Amino acid sequence: MIKQVIFNIQLSDLPEQEKKDLIYYAENLYFKQCPVIFDNQHLMKLFELQDHDLKRFMTENTNHYSIKKRNGDLREVWKPNYKLKTIQKWILKNILNEIKVSECAHGFVKSKSILTNAETHQYKEQFWVFSMDIKDFFPSIKYHEVKRIFMGIGYSNEVSEALSLLTTVHGKLAQGFPTSPMLSNLFFRDIDEEFQQIASRYHIRYSRYADDITFSGVQKKGYLVLSEKLKQIVTSVLSKHNFIVNEAKTRLMKGKHPKIITGLVVTSQGVRIPQKYIRRLNKEIYYCRKFGVNGHLKYQGLITIANYKGYLIGLARFIYMVDPVKGAKFIKMIKDLDWD
Fold first, then answer.
1. Which are the contacts of 313, defined by CB distance < 8 A and separation ≥ 6?
2. Rounded distance, CA 42 to CA 159, Å?
3. Which end of the chain has fewer beta carbons closer than 10 Å to its terminal beta carbon, N or C?
4. Packing angle of the helix pair 275-291, 324-335 (nearest 10 deg)
């Protein structure tokens, strides 16, 4: 394909220097395995968009609603319609997924998960874990920072501007857009590397799963002072990038007690699912067997709940991720329930 693009450029009646610039631009994107998009007109034709007012296109093709978080606060969610979602998935598949993120990132990364994130912090000796959470993670990343990502990939100012408009709303990343997770990882790449360098300096470990930041180390003299120092350093670095630390989710886990990392229990013996999930699923299956699925749902006042089976299977698969034998047993038990 690139040979044909270069051939077409050479056949054009453009000035020689402009031809050279276009060929360099196209080859740079090609070698990064990204599609060549020359200008806005090219992009509009690619996505079959008639209107050049992309801001208006974004607001007209998204649904906005709020969901309540565990702490009672509201989280804004933007749901793209079919056309916009198709465009964003194309951008994700053909551009963003081709760009390497930090090895420290475990969220939204192929072959990584909350399990690999937790396993990073497993020690044989007694250890400590220091975790922090970023408040309003996606919306804290602004349009101009997203544009800088696309320009860093190699796209022109004009194309980067259009791609950024198609992946943000009201000037920021949005919860609910398929492109937001990977864009957040790409934006955070340099910060991840900075935190990894800090971890290496102090002979400790670092990882990140989306907005969850985790440091850990062997519990030895001076670790309490180090954890306080880490808090100051991380808060300072994040504030430079307009991120705010969620103080309510900042904690130091120490001693012989199990450490909770991205929802999983980490001990010197390994990583396991918290018992509350096992108990919850056992309880649900027990009552479904005793009263029937519909009888149980009706008694609980959940008769209108959609996809209850999917909810139970989701819990079982969560368990399967860490304990395949136990997870497979739960999945079979759920499928064997009377769903008629």
1. 331, 334
2. 9
3. C
4. 20
If you search the block for the tokens 């009706």, which residue do you land on?
Answer: 298
Q: Which of 236, 148, 159 is nearest to 187 (CA)?
A: 148
State the residue for tokens 């064997």.
336
Half-sphere exposure of 48 (CA within 13 A, CB side): 5
Mention every residue, 6+ apart, whose C-beta is less than 8 A from residue 59.
169
Q: Percent of the chain, pLDDT > 90?
A: 82
Q: Contact 173/131 with Cβ under 8 angstroms? A: no
DSSP code, position 253: E
Indicate the pLDDT class of residue 50, thresholds 50, 70 and 90.
Answer: confident
Sign of CA dihedral 321, 77, 184, 81: positive
Inter-residue contact 174 to 88 (CB < 8 Å):
no
**Could you tell me the pTM of the whole model?**
0.90
What's the CA gap between 82 and 60, in Å, rounded?
A: 12
Q: Which two three-digit tokens encode residue 98? A: 């081709």
Tokens of 108: 């939204």
Asked if residue 72 has pLDDT above 70, the reply is no
pLDDT, tens digit, 9 for 90 and up, residues 73-126:
777 889 999 999 999 999 999 999 999 999 999 999 999 999 999 999 999 999
Amino acid found at 32: K
Residue 128 CB: number of other CB atoms within 10 A?
Answer: 22
High-pLDDT (> 70) share of the chain, %? 97
Are 185 and 102 within 8 A, CB to CB? yes
Q: Answer whether residue 322 shows pLDDT above 90.
A: yes
Indicate if the pLDDT at residue 302 is higher than 80. no
Tell me what pLDDT residue 35 has.
96
303: pLDDT confidence band, cut at 50, 70 and 90? low
Cβ neighbors of 340 (< 8 A, separation 6 or more) are none
Strands (DSSP E) found in 16-150: 62-68, 74-80, 127-135
DSSP 3-state of 129: strand
- CA–CA gap between residue 111 and residue 335 (Å, rounded): 27
